[in-house]
Amino acid sequence: MTLIEAENAIIEEFSMYEEWLDKYEYLIELGKSLQDYPEEAKTDDRLIKGCQSRVWLDYKVEDGKIIFNADSDAIITKGIISLLIGLYSGRTPEEILSSDFSVVEKIGLKENLSPTRANGLVSMIAKIREVAGY
Amino acid sequence: MNIIDIRSKFPTLSRKVYGKDLVYFDNAATSQRPQSVLDEWNRITAESNANIHRAVHRLADEATQAYEQARDSVKVFLNADAREEIVFTSGTTAAINLVAFSYGEAFVGEGDEIIVTEAEHHSNIVPWQMMCKRRGAVLKVLPVDDDGHLVLEKLDELLNEKTKILAVTHISNVLGIVNPVQDIVRICHSKGVPVLVDGAQGAVHCKVDVQDIDCDFYVFSGHKLYAATGTGVLYGKRKWLDAMPPYMGGGEMVGNVSFKETTYAPLPMKFEAGTQNFASTATLKPALELVNLLNNNELIKYNDGIRDYLLDYFRNDLRIRLFGVPRGTSDEKIPLFSFVVNGVHHEDLALILDKMGVAVRSGQMCAEPLMDRFGVTGMLRASIAPYNTMEEAEYFVKCLNKAIDMLI
Predict the structure, then answer these.
(1) Quick check: bond before B286 cis, omega within 30?
(2) With contact defined as beta carbons under 8 Å apart, do B96 and B123 qualify?
């Protein structure tokens, strides 16, 4: 699936949830499914600023593709990063940079999460972009 | 005056969020404003907008009167000895900064000591740290115990001839326990040490009598007490305010100005430099009138019932750890509940509650040292005002349980 196709699939998935609590249920499940992030990688240089909760984002490059891994101490945040990782991990820097990242707004996460949370979300996306552009 | 009459005075309380009735439980941060406060602000801004104190024209006179009447209201509210002892500021934080600076300039030197407590809001820590740095003084800390009570036995150890002032909160914005400020003042005064009481929460929940407490300074904010944002009060005993140099220089605070020497205005103007936030400050008068209205036995009994219901819930739900637990009767605690749910992040709970229409605070609540003391990264806080209802409290408990079920 191309990145655009994957983004559209997420947008369609979210459009099925009319109630906010259903969106949260979905994010909580996603958060719980995020693969184990090693404790030793929870270092300050991997910590993303701007969240009330803490988020760690790590990455490695394999065959020209960036593999992201992340964790958070809050489960809804973890769900959001899981969603972002599902979209952007395992893709080439060119693919990642081709996205306008509007998927976050289109599923209503940006405006409906608290401003502090939105800042964290913005920081997360900025970090993914930074890694891809490096 | 029953709860329905009280609620009808606050326009915000009838709004909906995400299609649900708003349950506003973040009152310890900012209270909602009654129509009388909105009307007063609007009246002054629309009809009497002019710079206070100096001009002789009609509008300036009206604005000045409204501003000075608020001072009279505050004097009565605190039972201060004189209106000159009431200084208006932009809030509690500004009032503490003023004292930390001006008192520090006059009375604190190299090697002196300042005492604060572990339960303080950042606003009652950082200004003193800054002053200590400036004056070469040392900051000492009175601890709290596991239940959130100040360890008064340690006070004697901390007080000595180098101690220059003690700053303590009347009620912590995290713990909600009413501190024995009268005892603290008595102990400190026996060693010749003045006391500043941070009344940001205390002024809202206690009958404050500064002459009875005998504190040297008492500070509070208008925005937590139904008045407009950007308003605050510094009460200071005249002997201290007279002996302290001004905090800021500028208009209003001067006697005579020349390039050689400037003399300062008498109290309280000496500490009110620049154009004051007069339209907002004037709303303290209708706000304090409302406080009087809320102070009736029927309503107090109703409010205490809500507090006891929630206290009972928080104490008995084994998944919950409550911070600030009364040791004697529940009257030791105000209806403010900071807690964590085992295994659940406070932010997740706050986000879900928000979507259910319930506004609570989450995070460190401007009290990082206290978070460290209890070994948590943040808490959730529900703080109740006299306009909240038992139905809201029950709905909140229901929502909290549902949110916990979603997250565990």
Answers:
(1) no
(2) yes
CA distance B68 to B268: 11
Nearest residue to B31 (alpha-carbon basis) of B224, B290, B231, B286:
B224
**What span, in angstroms and rounded, lies between the C-alpha atoms of B342 and B253?**
53
Output phi, psi for B145, to 5 deg: -90, -175
Q: How far is CA A82 from the centre of its chain?
A: 5
Cβ atoms < 10 Å from Cβ of A134: 9
Of B67, B34, B1, B110, nearest to B252 (Cα)?
A: B67
Report the distance separating Cα B297 and Cα B326, nearest Å: 22
Distances (CA, A) of B88 to A99, B33, B41, B72, B281: 53, 19, 16, 12, 8
Q: Cβ contacts of residue B272 below 8 Å, gap of 6+?
A: B87, B88, B252, B253
Torsion over CA: A91, A94, A97, A101 (sign):
negative
Nearest to B18 among A20, A75, A117 (CB): A20
Residues of chain B in contact with residue A52, where contact means CB-CB under 8 angstroms, are 347, 362-363, 378
Whether the CB-CB separation of B368 and B377 falls below 8 Å is answered with no
Helix and strand numbers (H, E) in chain B are: 16, 17
**Which residues fall within 8 angstroms of residue B187, CB to CB, at 6 or more apart?**
B152, B155, B156, B159
This prediction has a pTM of 0.94
Token pair, residue B173, equals 């914005």
Q: Which residues contact A31 (CB under 8 A, 6 or more apart)?
A: A72, A75, A76, A77, A78, A79, A80, A82
Q: How many CB atoms lie within 10 A of CB A53?
A: 24
ipTM of the complex: 0.88
At A133, give phi and psi (nearest 5°). -85, -5
B304 dihedral zone (left: phi>0; alpha: psi -120 to 50; beta): alpha
Contact present, B383 and B336 (Cβ < 8 Å): yes
pLDDT tens figures, B65-102: 999 999 999 999 999 999 999 999 999 999 999 999 99
Tell me the Cα Rg of chain A.
14
The tens digit of pLDDT for each residue in A50-99 reads 667 888 999 999 999 999 999 999 999 899 889 999 999 999 999 999 99
Rg (CA), chain B: 22
Chain B closest CA to A24's CA: distance in Å?
Answer: 8
What per-residue string of b and e applies to B36-56 under the rule 16 or more CB within 10 Å gives b?
A: bbbebbeebeeebebebbeee
CA distance A7 to chain B (A): 24
- Residues of chain A contacting B345 with CB distance shorter than 8 Å: 53, 73-75
